Amino acid sequence: MKTIEDLEVSGKRVFVRADLNVPLSGDTITDDGRIRAVAPTIAKLVERGARVVVASHLGRPKGEPDPKFSLAPVAVRLGEILGRPVGFATDTVGDSAKATVAALGDGEVTLLENLRFNAGETAKDDAERGAFADQLAALADLYVGDGFGAVHRKHASVYDLPARLPHAVGDLIATEVGVLKRLTEDVARPYVVVLGGSKVSDKVGVIENLLGKADRILIGGGMMYTFIAAQGHGVGGSLLQEDQIPVVQDYLKRGAEQGVEFVIPLDTAVSGSFPDVKTGAPVEDFAVVDVDAIPDGALGLDIGPKTAQLFAEKIADAKTVFWNGPMGVFEHPAFADGTRAVAQALIDSDAFTVVGGGDSAAAVRTLGFDETKFGHISTGGGASLEYLEGKTLPGLAALED
To answer: Which residues hold (2R)-3-phosphoglycerate (predicted)?
Structure first.
């Protein structure tokens, strides 16, 4: 893959496909991590005199404009981070985009409106997607792919557009791919994988691929209750994917045969109802119980303290750790301890630690951890998982020379 250093960008219109899919509360950005992650690439292009056209999606609008998914607040925050004005086009390929891009001078930046406001961005039909890519290509001379969180999508701006322009990878994608290679090629051992999140079915591919690679797989989050059920225990009213129980039992059997240690929780924090994460109101019926004694109707919402200690011990001697998915409902103080304990265990270890994007990255920031204490915090949870599953990512394939 070519890097931006391989491109002559001075005076050229450079289309940067970023991932600025940040969480919003109204017009307020609640986590600007993805904006900060791509800013160095944009700044480097600016310094070299490029005319930078930034584009991204946000949320899941249905192929037409929707004010609640506007990137306008992102343009403001990007300008603050870059320390320079950032223009904003109120459409993707219409009159506003054309005029805004045409007005760019050397070293100036503009952001297009949400790419998914145009149905061609996510179209399954190659011709429809290609037609939108043609319109985007008319706005630029060069293409830089730096939206790692979107490279697993076969979308117009990610997959089709690079074929229409000279292209290179930005610094963010180059870093992400380098990190993922450290997790898949000549890995420093012991190699510990910590998996959380809600559903086993979301992690089937990555568990399958890691069975031959990881030394230990620690299971938390909502998915742990399917593992607990697979061991023959009741899980009360906790999240359970009954259809995945045979799959989990097969994993446990194969793990034992291949020398991969599955570490299943010993205890869990429960409540009779789902907590109010918006207000953080106290949970009146909070309890910690062993996993073989979950009361009928109780909802398991975090790993318990014995499990947190066990997980910390299993991480302590690791040389490589990959973590994807929180251990519980970390957004509520009563159920944040498990996720906090795992994050601290990663920091305390001497391992190369990778936080696999998505909710895990959000948890690190929400719980106040210093991001620099981790080896790498990914900007793409889904993309990271698919890479670790061994899949070909369309957006990366499109950037190959």
So the answer is: 34, 116, 153
Whole-number Å distance between alpha carbons of 237 and 234: 9
Would you say the pTM of this structure is higher than 0.70?
Answer: yes
Is 19 labelled a binding residue?
Answer: yes
**Residue 197 to residue 17: CA distance in whole angstroms:** 28
Q: Answer yes or no: is 236 a known binding residue.
A: no
Who's near 17: CB < 8 A, 6+ residues apart? 55, 56, 143, 144, 145, 146, 147, 150, 157, 158, 161
Residue positions annotated with a catalytic role: 34, 199, 358, 382
Question: How confident is the model at residue 186, as a pLDDT?
Answer: 86
Quickly state the pLDDT bin for 335 (edges 50, 70, 90).
very high
Adjacent-strand bridge partners of 145: 17, 169
Report whether 183 contacts 375 (CB < 8 A).
Answer: no
Summarised one tens digit per residue, pLDDT across range 5-50 is 999 999 999 999 999 999 999 999 998 989 999 999 999 999 999 9
Backbone angles phi, psi at 17, to 5 degrees: -85, 105
Q: CATH number of the domain at 187-389, out of 3.40.630.30, 3.30.420.40, 3.40.50.1260, 3.30.70.20?
A: 3.40.50.1260
Band of residue 381 on the pLDDT scale cut at 50, 70, 90: confident
Q: Is 84 annotated as a binding residue?
A: no
The domain 4-173 belongs to what CATH superfamily? Answer: Phosphoglycerate kinase, N-terminal domain (3.40.50.1260)
- Strand 287-290 and strand 267-271: pairing? antiparallel
190 preceded by a cis bond (ω within 30 of 0): yes
CATH 3.40.50.1260 intervals, the chain: 4-173, 187-389
212 is in an annotated binding site: no
Asked whether residue 77 carries a pLDDT value surpassing 80, the answer given is: yes
Buried b or exposed e, range 27-47, using 16+ CB within 10 angstroms: eebeebbbbebbbbbbbbbbe
Residue 48 is labelled as binding a ligand: no
Q: What is the pLDDT of residue 42?
A: 98
Amino acid of residue 110: T
> Beta strands 267-271 and 299-303: pairing type?
antiparallel
